[in-house]
Amino acid sequence: MDTIEVLKKLEQGEPLYRTMPIVRKKRICGTETEFGNSNKEGEPIASFDQLPIMLYNGGEIYEDIHVEYASPECTNPAALTAYYEAGKVLTRELNLADKLHCLNNDWHGNTFGAHENYFTCAPRKNWQKLIPFLISRSIITGAGWINRGGKFEITQRAWCITCAESDNTTSERAVLNLRYEPLANLGGWDRLHIICGDANMSEVSTFLRIGMTSLVIEMMEKEALPDILYDPEFSRDDFRSISRSTHNWRLEGIINGHKEGLKVLQLYLDRAKQLFSHQDQVTDAVLIIWEDTLEKLASDPMKLWRRLDWVTKLFILSEFEVIQNSNYEWLQSQDMEYHNINGAEGLYYLLRQERQVERIVSDELIIHATIEPPSDTRAYARGKINQFLGNNGNAKSLCANGWSHLTVVDEDCRGVDWRQLNGHKYISRRIDNPFETYREIVEEFKIHLK
Length: 450
Hints:
Blueprint: H1 3-11, E1 29-35, E2 53-54, E3 60-64, E4 66-70, H2 77-93, E5 114-120, H3 131-136, H4 138-141, E6 145-146, E7 152-153, E8 161-166, E9 173-177, E10 190-194, H5 203-221, H6 235-243, H7 261-276, H8 281-299, H9 309-319, H10 328-338, H11 347-353, H12 363-371, H13 379-392, E11 396-398, E12 405-410, E13 425-430, H14 439-449
Parallel strand pairs: 8-9
Antiparallel strand pairs: 1-4, 1-5, 2-3, 3-4, 5-10, 6-7, 11-12, 12-13
């Protein structure tokens, strides 16, 4: 698709993809989404009796204080957008709570993570170079919210970011997370686990969040990042300053060159176009939408009210003429309802049904992503073996948290840590390489478990 076709489809509310795209250059990526539902004391009020559940799509839903969905590994941002949306459908269908929300904050001080995982060969000592990008990308990817002081912010995550980098993901949340949590064992590769991003309802926001970040990480791997020097001591304040403004965003930590956030993002885009243009259709779509988004943000951000979460939310609340309204509880309720993942109730889904928001993937492709795993990563083996077990009714299941291994156990042992199963294992194999599909292991398991 060329620029005109991509932008026309978006304008008309037509999805860019109706079938799962396969790309020549795999970039392994995935998400982990905590769905918000807590009481005023911060205690989860969902039912976890059914969890954990390994899914037919190669992902998992489990309890990590809150209800959490981990997508299967994908190779491109369009596929991951479909599986991210599929997580909302699958979680909703379990009826774990009266309401679940895809967001980062409520108004009781509770926070919910929206984490991203990227498989990278860039050495850890270079990861700090990502900080100015991770801060500035929030201008595009923020979900927006009315904060507890009644003011609008473009990102929900900024207020809880406390430092530039850390390996602590609970008491000290950083722009750059350095906690060592490998989910694979492939020499020269590492898992970059990003925790500073917002949970998105908009498919385009998700697509850009994953797509832009994947390309910038590949720039880092190629040692081809734009020449941006940044003082990490400014990280927390820059993140929060950007969040509190709907225009004229600045990164005071930039040591050389432009401090204006849109110009910083333009530097990354220019380099991405030099390196990755015409690599595949998905990458081209990322570049086209990225460029168009920056142009509209520079001229009038409200032109993006159907594309970006924070602009859409600001537009809706402005239409209701309540941004300055003293009815704070009503503001809260409308903000929360935007993130309600119940398709019959959520404000975002109402807009989607009326074709008032831009789309990346079709409804049919999202449904496909709820029942079928990606065909080009190790999630294929996980999903297909799980399907085989479910269709054969033999009281066996895949052990939970099976990212680097596949272990079949008795159904009542599925939530037990796989390293503590001892004699309960029927068959177990390592799957250390996310780039592989392990089709031969699928066939081996089928034969063994007949």
